[in-house]
Each structure stands twice: as C-alpha cells, then as structure tokens.
Amino acid sequence: MSEATPAVPRYRQIAADLGARIRQGEYTPGAALPAQRELSTSYGVTLMTLRQALQELSDDGLIVQQPGRGTYVAPAQAAYRMDTLRSLTDDLREQGHEVITQVLSSTLRRPPAWVTDRLGDLDNERFLRLERLRLLNGRPAIHQISWVRPPHGAAVRDRDFVETSLYAALADIGVAILRASERIVPAVLTGSAAGRLRRPVGSPVFVSERTTVALDETAVVVDRAAIVGSAMEIRAERAATRVSVRWGAAGS
To answer: How far is Cα 224 from Cα 183, in angstroms, rounded to an integer?
Structure first.
C-alpha cells in the first residue's frame, strides 16, 4: 500500500499560481499586484495565508513589497558584460533598460590610502573624485566613486558625465585604455551610500573595485561601486578558450 502524498500547503499553491502568472506576463515587470485583501478574497484564504505566499514570492525575487504602497512585480533585471571594457551604461541601454546617470560630485582632492595603493602617491597632487548614481528603470541601483590620476583628472573634470562615460572622456584627451582588473565581493550598505541608494543600512550589495590601466601600463582610474544586491547576480559562461562573466537577473 503506497503512502499518501502530503498535501501542498495552500500558501505554496497560491505562490505557485501567482509565480506562473508573473512568468507568463500576466503581471509585467514593475506592475502592481492587486491589493492583499483582493487577492485573499479571490483565493479564498486569510490575509495571513496570502502574506505567506507573497513572502515566498519575495524570497524568490519575483516581487517587491513596499510598506504603505503595495506589492509590485520585480522590475526587469540588468545584465552587463564584465569581460569587456565597454561602458556600463552602454551595455545596459543595449538591453533596453532605461539608465539615468546622476553626477553627485566632481572635485579635485587628495585621495585616500586605498586609491594611492593602486594609482600611486604623486607628491600631494590632487586627483579627480567623480561620484555618480545610476538609476536603472527609475530606481537607484549603483553608487559609484571613481578616482582619476593627474593630469588626466583635471583635464576631464568639466565633462558632462551625465551623457558621457568616463572612458569616452579619457579617450577624447588621448588616453587609450588597455585593460582593467576587477574584484567583486558581497557586502552590506553603510553610511552615505545607503542614503544614496535609498536602502536601509545593512542591505546586501555587491562591491566592485576596478583598476583601469592605459596603454603605457599606467594605472589611471580606480572605481569602487556599490551595486544593489537584490537587483543583480553574477553569471559565468565557460568555454574551452575563454570565460565570459556577466551581471544577470537575481533569481532568474
């Protein structure tokens, strides 16, 4: 005599149904789901059961719950190549994402130790500190601080970095980029970056640290970027001749 198959909890049935409707496009990325009371009535369950289902969908990265505002389908996620030297903004826009760059500051100042460790200490000269916020599909996603060694920093300081990438600005003054090395680690938001990204302190992020080297083998730029951890994941594709690494959709 075979054992009876355990019944699937009702909240998981609801989560599976809503998840299928999201994946099939009935609810599109960024769209609001019906109010919780409406959903609980339509499924014939209590609010507590409905909230268990929504929590499961949230854990799977399919929805975003915003207290006081409602529940939304998670926005379309970004994927950008990390095995090229293309502009991040160009990669994202090529995928059809709306990317807005906000320049928070552009100043010449003495760099901190982690910058001079990578670019060198040039007899108290001032470096360009460029701070930018990237909004992806209308939401803050990346907080980036770039340091550019002299004399290149002063030469590009007044460029419009809302419309122009840093690499393009450097190319315009004759600085050709040879390569870049990048290190990515998981971290949590602290300090002002949390406010810039409109996330609570302690929220998960990826931190990318990149050092960019010119044709003459001089390190010319170092970047440190906090990337919202719930928005992206890292993917790698391995082949016999190369490894391609990309940012991709969290949970997809």
So the answer is: 10
- Listing DSSP states for 58-89 in one string gives HHTTSEEEETTTEEEEPPPPP--BSSS---HH
Alpha carbons 131 and 243: distance in angstroms, whole number = 31
Q: What is the CATH code of the structural domain delimited by 88-249?
A: 3.40.1410.10
The alpha-helical segments, DSSP class H, found in 95-203 are: 113-119, 152-156, 166-172, 191-196
10-73: CATH topology: Arc Repressor Mutant, subunit A (1.10.10)
Q: In terms of Cα–Cα distance, which of 234, 180, 244 is closest to 205?
A: 234
Distance from CA of residue 122 to its chain's centroid?
33
Quote the pTM value. Answer: 0.63
Sequential pLDDT tens for the chain (252 residues): 445 546 889 999 999 999 889 888 898 887 889 999 999 999 999 999 999 999 888 877 788 877 777 888 876 655 444 445 555 666 666 666 678 899 999 999 999 998 998 998 777 789 999 999 988 777 888 999 999 999 999 999 999 999 888 988 998 998 888 888 888 888 999 888 899 998 889 888 889 899 999 888 899 999 999 988 766 666 555 555 455 555 544 444
CATH 3.40.1410.10 placement within the chain: 88-249
Q: Is 93 helix (H, G, I), strand (E, B) or coil?
A: helix
Residues of the chain with CATH 1.10.10.10: 10-73
Write down the residue that tokens 């949390």 correspond to. Answer: 194
Q: Kindly write down the DSSP assignment for every residue of 4-27, as one continuous string.
A: PPPPPPHHHHHHHHHHHHHHTTSS
* Separation between Cα atoms, residue 143 and residue 122, nearest integer Å: 27
